[in-house]
Amino acid sequence: MSVEPIVEHSPKVADEVKKTTCYMCACRCGINVHLRDGKVRYIEGNRDHPVNKGVLCAKGSAGIMQHYSPARLRSPLKRVGPRGSGQFEEISWEEALTTATGWLAPIRETDPKKLAFFTGRDQSQALTGWWAQQFGTPNFAAHGGFCSVNMAAGGIYTIGGAFWEFGSPDWDLTEMFVLFGVAEDHDSNPIKMGLGKLKNRGKRVVSVNPVQTGYAAISDDWYGVTPGTDGLLILSLIRELMLSGNIDVDYLRRYTNAPWLVIRNPGAADDGLFLRDDDGKPQILDRSSGKPVASNSRGAAAQLQGEVKLDNGAVAVPSFMLMAEAYLDDAYNPDVIAGKVGIPAARIRQLAADLAEAAFAKEIVINQPWTDWKGEHHETMIGRPVSMHAMRGISAHSNGFQTCRALHVLQLILGSVEVPGGFRFKPPYPKPAEVHPKPAGRPDQVTPGKPMAGAPLGYVLGPDDLIIGKDGAPQRIDKAYSWDAPMSAHGLMHMVISNAVAGDPYPVDVLFMYMANMAWNSSMNTRGVMDMLTAKDDETGEYKIPKIIYSDAYQSEMVAYADLILPDTTYLERHDAISLLDRPICEADGVADAIRWPVLPPDRDVRGFQSVLLDIGARLGLPGMVNEDGSAKYADYGDYIVNHERKPGIGPLAGFRGENGKAEGRGSPNPAQLDAYIENGGFWHTEIPDAAKYYKMANMAYQEFAVEMGFFDSPQPYDFQIYSEVLQKFRLAAEGHGEVQPPEHLRARVKQCFTPLPSWYPPFEGSAIDEDEFPIHALTQRPMAMYHSWGSQNPWLRQIHGYNPMFLSQTLASKIGVGEGDWIWVTSHHGKIRVPVAVMEGVNEHTIWTWNAIGKRKGAWQLDADAPEVKKGFLLNHLIHELLPPKGDGMRWANSDPITGQAAWFDLRVKIEAAAADEPAEVAPQFDQIASPPGLTKPEAMLRYGLEWTKSVTKQTKKGQ
Ligand code: SF4
Fold first, then answer.
1. How far is the CA of 899 from the centre of ligand 1 (A)?
2. Residue 193: CB partners within 8 Å, gap ≥ 6?
3. Closest CA to 357 of 278, 273, 241, 184
4. How far apart are CA 495 and CA 397, in angstroms?
5. 3-class secondary structure, 378
6. Of 433, 514, 663, 500, residue with least CA distance to 127
């Protein structure tokens, strides 16, 4: 008798659903976690959540496999073998915390700088930065220095915010969207949703990227720019728009510093500074009176041309005149730059014409009255519907800061920032550099046994704010805010290990890191960094970095190089605050924040890192973390999230504050706050009033809303900074003015690169090597299914990207006689790797590329020693050095942007050749296998997660019954 299954069409899927925040990438979408029998049954997007509105990506769905990964660390560990071997023994939390405290307490009392505390892509920098400040060390930063600080700092110094977390395109109204460079993970779902809206509305998507992959694959126009020349292309577009008169003069006059008067006094200490009145207010030339008046004068009509004679014989002109002088230059003529940028002149001119048409021929007018900060009432809001986005693609070059600034200037001359259809800020942005704190860490701000006088990270406004000693020496271990990288707003995490090992500017005693895979994909010169982490002092035989504490949830490559491991939870087992004090998740129309909370209890002896950090802080007696009687102030991170106040009424979460939980933004701590968030779906959201939704930098209704919410204590309106006086101050110092001047060997570089108007110079690596020997650019792109190294241990995501080939154009492949599946050697000035090949169209003819961070070291992440990620997956990092080749004088410059210190990953130049036919089909170099820490389980040979539930919903029954 035959038997056939009857499928139950409405099976019981979950016992309960808990709403929290995804952490499979940095976007922080809302998720509904369906739980059954105490396990995760599946994860879906939260339809009410402001970030993703129900959308879930492949990574988010695969969070189940991240949560149950066999690579999860299971208990605190103490190193018992040599560093790098991966040999550990399990210890108790008490022993781990006593050990950490025993290492940290003496240095806090003697020299707190001896602690270098750096975190990777964590989402709790408001806590970690505050902890570092309370400890008293200036040596704190997160991963921004090797990620996209050029984009972030370029944005803050120019328009008061940048892309992604700071703002987004006005997807509903924009007519043309231009995406520069790779940006697939910054951000992910929100951009995909936005692109979907544009495609549905039939609007134009333009991509400027050496590679036509990711979002570029669905663009209407693709410009395959040569890496590192984006700035040149952008300045050429600016030239074309200025020449054709396609600029928004009214917008430039009202909302930017284009009319501010700049002193022209060559050779003098005030050359290039703004003309200011006795109150320090910048001056503009008023058309009606013909006289200079304060830039915020009510009713003044600013001129963009003209000249004011000064008493000392100098003159002052609107900065717009300097723009015209700089950008109408033939150096930016499309005919002149076409060869260099790899795009025909006619296409550059067409792109400029398309931008102009979208901005001006398709002007939007919204009948919404509003009042600006200069007191003028407007009946309408005028929109220039061109929007843009960029992240690491244009910023990871040694000319990235100026390129990012140039991109914002392009937006500004089109009048398309913070207007309908353009780029819009997300609260608490916009927030110009002047409103941010300055960094602390100078010798007079660091005192043993005491908190530092301010936060370690901030925005400098000139040479006087640098974190250097009286002798000009760097004071931070990463040399951030020194003349090496004066405006390094996110620190230089990629330089910490090499500087500490070199003892330059000084050695450290404890290196404390969280979620930072520095022994693998987060470092340049990967083998060199592994050697540094194991380097010993010749005389003492001790490690040059004596103690390394590391916290992570997984057995990453870095784990093997630590002495003490503090195992973190997965994102489903912990509390987190997605805080306005940190990196916000707001949307342009509303303010939002969110939480994570333990939707499942840990089944291992692990603790959330933030709770552990607070525990260590309490054991060290750090102010703010202990009560008067010395007892711990917070039970754990959840307790801190509810009860910590950064200043009265302002805490990590802005929603459900006050005694009755009804206050928003400001309000006393509410003991039931976390419950209120959980009840609300894991987030809080409030809408910005209609009259405050655009022109936020100048709109008094928004400024008052921002004060109400606690973003500022008083309104902070401002003009966008096309011309940067901050950069000019550094340049004046290089010319010999002021007390604080760069060392001789850096003067010429500061003079060349710190131009007050965005400029372009060739990327440093290309200038330092023989371009005939290394004619090819090599890049990574971000796969949408992986977030850095996080995904390639995930069995579901590994099926999408199990290994990474090097993609070559057919032209390049033919040139060296290889085809799909062959192997090649790729050589840079620093190293050599053997990699598999894939051939594609849609790539700049001088460029090869691969996916980022797929390759894994043998033995790491609990992957099989023969896993494709080990045998056919590779890192480009092996080819990139943190220093450029030696110059004629023997000196080696950092492979970084000279302004912010951002790691110049994408300056890499290589040559390629076919591997010999008898060579093994395996990537080179290979590294020794690292041992698995004790207690980790082996991955299942055949994964069948969820099979038990599949059986339970399918009944066997007799045919006909
Ligand atoms: S985009 Fe990022 S945060 Fe959103 S669901 Fe995907 S992985 Fe999660």
1. 32
2. 52, 53, 55, 171
3. 241
4. 16
5. strand
6. 514
Q: In angstroms, rounded to a whole number, what is the distance separating the alpha carbons of residues 287 and 301?
A: 5
Sheet holding 30-36, edge to edge: 16-21, 30-36, 39-45
The β-bridge partners of 72 are 554
Ligand 1 pocket test, candidate residues 20, 23, 24, 782, most atoms within 8 A of CB: 24
Q: Are 476 and 490 in contact (CB under 8 A)?
A: no
Helix, strand or coil for residue 419?
A: coil
**Pick from 955, 710, 925, 724: nearest CA to 833:** 925
* Token output for 322: 């300097």
Tell which atom from ligand 1 comes closest to the C-alpha of 45.
5
Testing ligand 1's pocket by substitution, the residue of 25, 32, 123, 683 carrying the most ligand atoms inside 8 A of its CB is 25
Q: Work out the mean pLDDT of the chain and round it to a whole number.
A: 95
Ligand 1 pocket test, candidate residues 43, 46, 188, most atoms within 8 A of CB: 188
Nearest CA to ligand 1 atom 5: 60
181: Cβ contacts below 8 Å, ≥ 6 apart: 208, 209, 230, 390, 391, 392, 393, 394, 395
Q: Is the pLDDT assigned to residue 666 strictly greater than 60?
A: yes
pTM above 0.90, yes or no: yes
pLDDT tens digits, 616-635? 999 999 999 999 999 999 99
Calculate how far, in angstroms, residue 193's C-alpha sits from the geometric centre of ligand 1.
12
| φ, ψ of residue 589 in degrees (nearest 5) | -95, -5
The confidence band for 3, taking pLDDT boundaries of 50, 70 and 90, is: low
Can you give the pLDDT at residue 957? 42
**Among 362, 26, 321, residue whose Cα is nearest residue 170:** 362
Q: What 3-state class would DSSP assign to 617?
A: helix
Distance 25 CA to ligand 1 centre (A): 5
**Would you say 476 and 139 are in contact if contact means Cβ atoms under 8 Å apart?**
yes
Residue 792: the pLDDT is 83
Nearest CA to ligand 1 atom 8: 60
CA 146, 482, 895, 555 dihedral sign is negative
User: In the chain, what is the straight-line distance between the N-terminal and C-terminal CA atoms, in Å?
Assistant: 12
Looking at this protein, which amino acid is placed at residue 953? V
What distance in angstroms lies between residue 187's CA and the mean position of ligand 1's atoms? 9
- Chain segment 854-864, per-residue pLDDT in tens: 999 999 999 99
Atom 2, ligand 1: residue with shortest CA distance: 25
Ligand 1: atom nearest CA of 27 is 3
Provide the percentage of residues in the chain whose pLDDT is more than 90.
91
For residue 840, the 8-state DSSP code is: E
Is residue 516 helix, strand or coil?
A: coil
